[in-house]
Structure formats: structure tokens, C-alpha cells
Amino acid sequence: MGRWALDVAFLWKAVLTLGLVLLYYCFSIGITFYNKWLTKSFHFPLFMTMLHLAVIFLFSALSRALVQCSSHRARVVLSWADYLRRVAPTALATALDVGLSNWSFLYVTVSLYTMTKSSAVLFILIFSLIFKLEELRAALVLVVLLIAGGLFMFTYKSTQFNMEGFALVLGASFIGGIRWTLTQMLLQKAELGLQNPIDTMFHLQPLMFLGLFPLFAVFEGLHLSTSEKIFRFQDTGLLLRVLGSLFFGGILAFGLGFSEFLLVSRTSSLTLSIAGIFKEVCTLLLAAHLLGDQISLLNWLGFALCVSGISLHVALKALHSRGDGGPKALKGLGSSPDLELLLRSSQREEGDNEEEEYFVAQGQQ
Fold it and tell me: Which of 46, 251, 329, 338 could form a disulfide with 321, with the two C-beta atoms 3.0–4.6 Å apart?
């Protein structure tokens, strides 16, 4: 009976993990292709991103209100000092990462975007070393060389290469390294109480919106104010369709953020990293078949080299955590059995000051 119960529990966990991975795939791959499709007719990616942030904030606030009503416990609200000092850097880096990523869709194909964005792991490693979240090892140097070499091979003599778009994606990947390093440092601060993903997204969005607004005002403000699709609209039906398309993209963005946190909380950041590798393969295959992106043999070899580097990094993280006597480095939110992401807040024992490490190696929109 005990063996049967263990088998059922293992099977249920495997099915749950698979379901969460598929949910993450739907939102992540879906929003990539959706944003690429939308930017073909709507050439204001920064405004699109800002509207997405507003939708995410709206849904996060609504979710917090529902949780508070059902649990009868007040949600965490940071002081202005903590908010500006600890959350602002992470919010600004996240806003630039997402904004530049969406901006690049005006110039690059989905395949080039996917491959270049995968280099975020390289920058995450670099900034982890700078902030001493990782120790310099020969294996990490090999990971960096594999990813950098793979990126070079993928973009070398690519028939659909665009320098401006490539620079935007590479800039987003660079800032993404800062973003996820700061995210880890932010969520290690247990006293802030931002372990719940809804609370994290709720606090990040306003500063992300404000951080992205100057960039929007400079590059898109004037053009958007004279656009007949938004402010100078003449066809109400067209305006409603555009706003509806943008709002649906915001729903996908909220689903992506929540599915990433949900997957990590129920499994580990290692699971998200592994899932991210296969997601990129699926994205490239879909881009080649559905959008006609041209990928040469050299490009595929470069991608394989990059995936090898990412896989080696994931394997090293797993071995390192096992060598420490347990999945401490990958513990993340899933270590707390009392965490119910949408139904209740995290319950922690009094006097427990152990820092939780939360690191998403494949964060992208």
C-alpha cells in the first residue's frame, strides 16, 4: 500500500509538472509570436509594453484583493523607502529588458530574437560573478565560451540579420542579466515579504511603467499622438480592435509572468531552466515552419552550441546543489509547503531568518 501511494504521488507530481511546463510554453511562445504579429501593423512597441504593464498591474491588484477577501489577511505593502531603494533598480532593469525586447520585433525575425535572447544566461553568469552570487570556476568559463560562440555562429552570415534589431535584443539580454541578478537579490530579502508572485508583480509594475515612460516619450510620443490608430482615430471600430489586441497581449504578459513564478514555486528554477531550453527549440521550429524564417546549417550548429552551454550551466547548478547536501540553491518558493500562490500567502516560522535563493535563468517575455 505504501509503495502504491508513492507511485501515485510521483505520477501526480509528474503530471502536475508537465501541466505547468505546458502552461508556461503556451504563454511564453504565444506572446513571442503574438507580439511579432502585432508589431507588423502596430509600430509602437514601447506603448504596447506600457499598456501590458498596466494590464499586469490591474490583474495583480485584483488578485491581491481576492486573496485578501478570502484569507482575511492584509497583503504586504512596502514602505516608500524600501520601495524606492530596493524595488526600483529591479523594476527599471525589468522595464528596459521587456521594452527593448518588444522594440526589436520591428526589425528581427522570431528565430534571431529567440537565439539572441538565449544569451541572457551569459550575462546572468557575468553579473552573478560580479555580485558574488556565483564562484568563478573553469566550467563557468566554458559555459560562457559555448554560449558566446554559439551566438556568433548563429548570426554569422545570416540572410535575415538586422544590426539594429540585433543590438536591441542583445541590449535586452545584457540588461536581463542585471534584471535577474537583482531579482535574486530582491527575493532573498525575506523581510520584504515579496515571495508571493502576485505581490512581486504588483509592486514592480508602477515603477516599470514610470521607468519606461521617458524612453516612450522620446521615441514614440510624437508619432503616437498623431497616429490615426490611437489618438487621431477616425474609425472607432479600428480603435477598439487595436485596444483589444493590446489588452489581449497584456493578458498573455500577465499569464507569462505568473506561469513562470508558478512553475518555479511548484518545482524549482532548474525545471524552468530545462523547460526554457526545449521552449527555444520549439520556438525556432515554429518560426521556420510558420513564418518562413531562414535558418542555415551553420545557424543550427550555433544554436546547438549555445544550447550545450545552457545545458552545461543547468547541469552544474544541479550538481552544485546536490553537492551541498540538498537543493538549497534551487529551493526557491517551492520549499514552503504553505505557499498557495493564488489562495493564501506564504507562512513562515517565527525567527526563521534563512535567506531563500530564487534565480530564474531563462526569464524572457
Answer: 329
Whether 335 is covered by a domain: the verdict is no
Q: Which residues are 344's β-sheet partners?
A: 340
Tally of domains in the chain? 1
What pLDDT was estimated at residue 34? 95
Report the mean per-residue pLDDT for the chain.
Answer: 78
Question: Is-contact 156 298, C-beta < 8 A?
Answer: yes
* Residue 363, in any domain of the structure: no
In the block, which residue shows the cell 493564501? 344
Range list of H helices, the chain: 2-39, 45-71, 80-82, 88-104, 110-117, 120-130, 138-155, 163-188, 197-219, 221-225, 236-266, 269-290, 297-323
Which residues lie closer than 8 Å to 289 by C-beta, 6 or more apart?
Answer: none
In this structure, which amino acid lies at residue 357? E
Tens digit of each residue's pLDDT (9 = 90 or more) over 18-43:
888 899 899 999 999 999 999 998 99
Range of the domain at 55: 1-39+49-322
**Residues 278-287 pLDDT 10s:** 888 888 888 8
In a domain, 358, yes or no: no
Return the number of other C-beta atoms located less than 10 Å from residue 15's C-beta.
10
Residue 46, C-alpha cell as written in the block: 514601447
- Does a structural domain hold residue 222? yes
Cα 153 from Cα 343, distance rounded (Å): 47
- In this predicted structure, what is the pLDDT of residue 251? 95
Only one residue has cell 504588483, namely 202
